Write a sequence for this structure.
């Protein structure tokens, strides 16, 4: 390491003598682990610019996820630079700060929106103090660790405190107040009084959301989170003058004065939650306890507008045209809600009296509060005409059930839908005491018997409107690759997450080597799917090189004349293989895993000076060879294996009257041009006889045929191999083969030089465009048999070991409402990507009969009609969610874009933005038996809505 001089240290403000990069890395890692093990509310974390922190990571030799950086920035280009990385300068957080200081003058404001890991990182207090001691700089941006959620509690760093706009009713002056969402209303009053110089007893503050007075925020210990205050919302300051408060009137949206309804004491003391600002940073979860409300009336009193859930909303009250206000990056939530509140069975349920199904005892739910908040929101949307609704109370309840949604960061609409359906189910579960059932194996029983048993057990523990409407059942078959043990289970599902099979192809060149030394290496260029996996590449190569049924291929990457990576996992994505890399494939017997694998690297002696042998050093060259050993005992076995695998490279050589043609004719050995049946090859005193059966046999004793060393893989630790050196059989043996002039004369090493690249990009190459795919092809891809990943191994009860079993899914029982989630977002080590593939899905008459494996259709059809779509536009960095929903009674489609609602033609709802598809089963007439091809009937929870000819 180059030490920095004192002038540099003074200029950059660093303290003390800089440590070695490795030492800085070690200290930070230890301090981070200590902080992880001592999580508690109130701990301090510091926001640090990811731009600066990434430069520190590169300096300390850490792996950096470069896909998080802009590909066009100097930072991303420097990641692949071979130059040594300089020590970073002082900590610089300027790129994540808004210019200047806020109105209060005592707090630095962070830019919005920022993403953790992309724009900033969160450093524990001890780590920040150490980094600041080493580098100085700043400014320091401390943030508190807070606890979120009533049941599934999580620790989260409050990166963005709650920002409130205080409006003084006396002069309309505005101030920005920033407080933690965990701060009390009492703290809010103290802050306002201090800023405005007013006595607390003469102040009252209103929740002034959307410039409308909602309720007085009473001076109490109630938190801002419980008061349902939103990020950037208005609060109104009123000051008592001469013993009188300002006029208790407010303007409605038309400018008319409306008398304020007196606050219900039971409501004002209730608990409602909003969505104060929080960026989910460093977090962990732990179990929590909660004291549930004892009566339904207390839950009802906690709602925002006091809707009576025991009241049935009449048909005349219904609408379905209302939008949802965006509370700050909540378009993902609005999209999912609009799809759900336009699901006919769900609408029918929540417009009726559902109070007797509220489960206040279930510890897995929110004791009915989430269901009541959702029901209240649904009733508003169906009875408010076209007035947009602000889902503040609902978002607060959802944040308590799933804390990750309590902030204002963008999230996934399908993820929210999954949590919401789960929360509604638990709040409406009719089962108060769940019975216990022991899971039984199928043991050869008929599938129908096992499936019915599993479904009965599931319904005995889970019984709600969500299960009735949204849950189906699939069959899962696991097969052990070793003992062929078959395990069959039947599991419930709420939605189907379908992969998008890519039609974009990629050409890849791989050089195939024969581990038995029978044929020269041959490069093959094959075409595979761009988003495929190593299994696809192996299958394509196997077809190209005519791989027999008793052979398999071992894929590997060669870098700097050694094997740097084996592609052992068949599911490893091809996206991890770059075009400029060099791939090889070794042909092995099918059961090569049971044999000892021998990896042979090649070295030559490079002389620094012709007269000075002491300056010589051995360097790697050529392509490694891989072969196998059967029960190796001594060095002779390795020597014999090396001789065998090098045989295709042998030049034509004469031994007396016997001529051995070591060259190749049509890729195989040419026959010896001699009358004798046996040929003798000698080298360094040790001979091998080539028998008629093609096998080699040792003919004399002496030294090994080659100069070999046992190695640790890169040649750093080597020891010479002799004839009698004991060899312990194992999975992998590394050997270094030192080439001399004799090997160069006997063998043609040109076949092991200059491996072709995976793909050489031509300057004139055109970008391949993605073709459209069908929903059925996505479903086929979801249901196809495939091996489990290495991180998802299955414990085989027969082998008593974890195995990478093959898994096959089949649909068994379909729900009335079938939800398809199209997996557009893909993630790998080097890349995060969104697939904008156009999926061609049916709007009418989606027939899934051929996919259902149950012989009994349970008296129901397998034909579905589309009624809602959750759309995602844009990429991973931002994006926007909207929804298409069908009003079935009108047979018309509408576009819900937050608060904006507009009609849309059915022909325009298909697009590459479709993300989550909602289908409803087409009911059959009781006497029809099957769906008639000429006519289908659309039902809405038991009511015939309309009939349509196909």
């Amino acid at each position: 390491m180059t030490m920095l001089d004192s002038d540099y240290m003074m200029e950059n403000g660093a303290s003390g003598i800089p440590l070695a990069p490795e030492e800085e890395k070690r200290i930070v890692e230890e301090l981070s682990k200590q902080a992880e093990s001592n999580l508690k509310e109130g701990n301090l974390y510091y926001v640090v610019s990811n731009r600066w922190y990434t430069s520190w990571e590169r300096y300390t030799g850490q792996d950096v996820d470069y896909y998080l950086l802009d590909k066009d920035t100097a930072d991303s280009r420097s990641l692949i630079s071979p130059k040594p990385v300089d020590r970073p300068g002082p900590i610089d957080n300027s790129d994540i700060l808004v210019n200047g200081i806020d109105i209060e003058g005592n707090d630095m404001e962070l830019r919005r929106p920022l993403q953790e890991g992309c724009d900033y990182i969160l450093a524990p207090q001890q780590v920040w103090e150490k980094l600041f001691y080493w580098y100085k700089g700043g400014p320091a941006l401390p943030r508190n660790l807070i606890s979120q959620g009533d049941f599934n509690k999580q620790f989260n760093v409050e990166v963005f405190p709650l920002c409130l706009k205080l409006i003084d009713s006396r002069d309309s002056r505005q101030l920005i107040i920033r407080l933690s969402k965990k701060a009390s209303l009492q703290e809010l009053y103290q802050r306002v009084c201090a800023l405005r110089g007013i006595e607390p007893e003469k102040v009252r503050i209103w929740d002034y959301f959307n410039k409308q007075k909602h309720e007085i925020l009473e001076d109490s210990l109630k938190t801002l989170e419980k008061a349902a205050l939103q990020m950037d919302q208005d609060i109104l300051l009123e000051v008592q003058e001469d013993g009188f408060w300002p006029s208790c009137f407010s303007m409605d949206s038309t400018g008319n004065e409306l008398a304020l309804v007196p606050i219900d004491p039971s409501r004002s003391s209730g608990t409602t939650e909003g969505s104060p600002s929080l960026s989910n940073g460093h977090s962990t979860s732990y179990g929590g306890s909660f004291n549930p409300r004892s009566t339904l009336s207390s839950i009802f009193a906690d709602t925002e507008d006091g809707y009576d859930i025991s009241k049935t909303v009449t048909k005349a009250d219904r609408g379905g045209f209302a939008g949802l206000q965006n509370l700050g990056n909540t378009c993902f939530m609005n999209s999912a809600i609009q799809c759900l509140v336009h699901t006919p069975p769900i609408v029918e349920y929540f417009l009726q009296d559902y109070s007797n199904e509220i489960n206040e005892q279930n510890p897995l739910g929110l004791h009915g509060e989430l269901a009541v908040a959702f029901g209240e929101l649904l009733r508003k949307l169906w009875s408010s005409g076209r007035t947009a609704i602000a889902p503040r109370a609902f978002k607060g309840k959802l944040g308590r059930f799933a804390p990750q949604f309590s902030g204002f960061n963008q999230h996934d609409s399908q993820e929210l839908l999954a949590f919401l359906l789960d929360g509604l189910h638990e709040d409406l579960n009719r089962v108060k005491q769940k019975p216990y059932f022991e899971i039984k194996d199928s043991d050869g029983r008929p599938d129908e018997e096992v499936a019915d048993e599993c479904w009965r057990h599931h319904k005995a523990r889970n019984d709600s409107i969500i299960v009735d409407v949204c849950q189906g059942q699939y069959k899962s078959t696991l097969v052990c690759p070793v003992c062929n043990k078959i395990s069959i289970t039947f599991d419930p599902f709420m939605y189907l997450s379908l992969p998008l099979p890519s039609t974009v192809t990629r050409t890849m060149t791989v050089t195939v080597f024969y581990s038995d030394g029978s044929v020269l290496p041959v490069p093959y260029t094959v075409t595979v799917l761009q988003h495929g996996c190593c299994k696809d590449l192996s299958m394509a190569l196997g077809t190209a090189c005519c791989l027999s049924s008793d052979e398999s291929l071992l894929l590997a990457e060669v870098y700097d004349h050694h094997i740097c990576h084996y592609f052992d996992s068949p599911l490893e994505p091809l996206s991890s293989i770059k075009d400029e890399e060099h791939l090889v494939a070794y042909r092995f017997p099918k059961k090569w895993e049971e044999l000892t694998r021998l990896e042979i690297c090649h070295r030559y002696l490079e002389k620094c000076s012709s007269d000075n042998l002491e300056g010589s050093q051995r360097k790697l060259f050529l392509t490694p060879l891989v072969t196998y050993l059967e029960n190796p005992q001594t060095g002779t076995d390795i020597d014999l294996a090396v001789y065998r695998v090098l045989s295709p490279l042998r030049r034509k050589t004469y031994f007396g009257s016997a001529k051995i043609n070591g060259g190749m004719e049509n890729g195989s050995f040419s026959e010896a041009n001699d009358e004798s049946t046996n040929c003798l090859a000698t080298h360094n005193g040790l001979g091998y006889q080539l028998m008629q059966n093609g096998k080699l046999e040792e003919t004399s004793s002496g030294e090994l045929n080659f100069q070999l060393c046992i190695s640790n893989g890169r040649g750093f630790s080597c020891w010479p191999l002799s004839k009698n050196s004991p060899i312990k059989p194992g999975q992998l043996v590394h050997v270094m083969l030192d080439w001399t002039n004799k090997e160069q004369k006997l063998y043609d090493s040109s076949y092991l030089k200059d491996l072709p690249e995976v793909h050489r990009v031509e300057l004139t190459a055109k970008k391949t465009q993605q073709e459209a795919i069908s929903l059925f092809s996505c479903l086929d891809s979801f249901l196809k048999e495939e091996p489990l990943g290495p991180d998802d191994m299955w414990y085989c009860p027969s082998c008593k070991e974890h195995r990478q079993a093959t898994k096959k899914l089949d649909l068994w029982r379909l729900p009335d409402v079938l939800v398809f989630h199209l997996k557009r977002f893909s993630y790998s080590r080097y890349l995060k990507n969104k697939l904008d593939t156009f999926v061609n899905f049916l709007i009418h008459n989606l027939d899934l009969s051929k996919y259902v494996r149950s012989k009994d259709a349970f008296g129901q059809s397998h034909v579905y009609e589309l009624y809602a779509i959750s759309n995602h536009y844009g990429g991973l960095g931002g994006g926007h969610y909207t929804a298409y929903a069908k009003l079935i009674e009108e047979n018309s489609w509408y576009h819900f874009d937050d608060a904006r609602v507009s009609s849309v033609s059915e022909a325009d709802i298909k697009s590459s933005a479709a993300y989550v598809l909602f289908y409803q089963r087409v009911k059959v007439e009781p006497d029809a038996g099957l769906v008639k091809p000429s006519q289908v009937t659309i039902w809405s929870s038991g009511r015939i809505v309309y009939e349509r000819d196909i």
Notes: The chain has 19 helices and 51 strands.
